[in-house]
Amino acid sequence: MSRQMTIKEYENHIPSSYRGNYRKTMSGKSKATVCRWKKDKEDGVYDTNCGNRFEFNADGPTENHFKFCPYCGKKLKNFEKRKTI
């Protein structure tokens, strides 16, 4: 049977570019009350403002009944498409 990971071990598995957002969210220091998702036109993946990316196999957050961000737990808002330059 495998043992459960400690918080420190779990944090080490988070990419370094996301660690600041993760720690801010987990400590309650993040002032945002919602997590805004923007869809990247090129690859169809949603970028979250908590610093993550999420891809659906079909449709989007609304059609899949997503109400909260699975990363930070905040309410989802604005599923706008991101403009490419």
What is shown here, in short?
This protein is α+β, with helices and mostly antiparallel strands and 85 residues long.
Descriptive account of the structure:
This protein is an alpha+beta fold. It has one domain (about 5-80). The protein is about 20% helix and about 25% strand. The protein contains two helices and four strands, in the order ααββββ. The protein has a four-stranded mixed sheet with strand order 3-2-1-4, with no helix packed on it. It is globular, with a radius of gyration of 14 Å.
Q: How are the secondary structure elements laid out?
A:
Elements: H1 7-13, H2 16-27, E1 34-40, E2 46-48, E3 53-54, E4 75-82
Parallel strand pairs: 1-4
Antiparallel strand pairs: 1-2, 2-3
State the helix count: 2
Distance between the termini: 50 Å
Number of domains: 1
Q: Strand count, sense and closure of the main sheet?
A: 4 strands, mixed
The low-confidence runs, each spanning 5 or more residues with pLDDT under 50, are none
Structural class: alpha+beta
Rounded to an integer in angstroms, the radius of gyration calculated over CA atoms is 14 Å
Helix residue percentage = 10-25%
How do the strands line up in the largest sheet? 3-2-1-4
Q: Determine the strand fraction and express it as a percent band.
A: 15-25%
Mean pLDDT: 76
The coarse overall form would be globular
Could you give the count of β-strands? 4
- Helices and strands, in order, run as HHEEEE
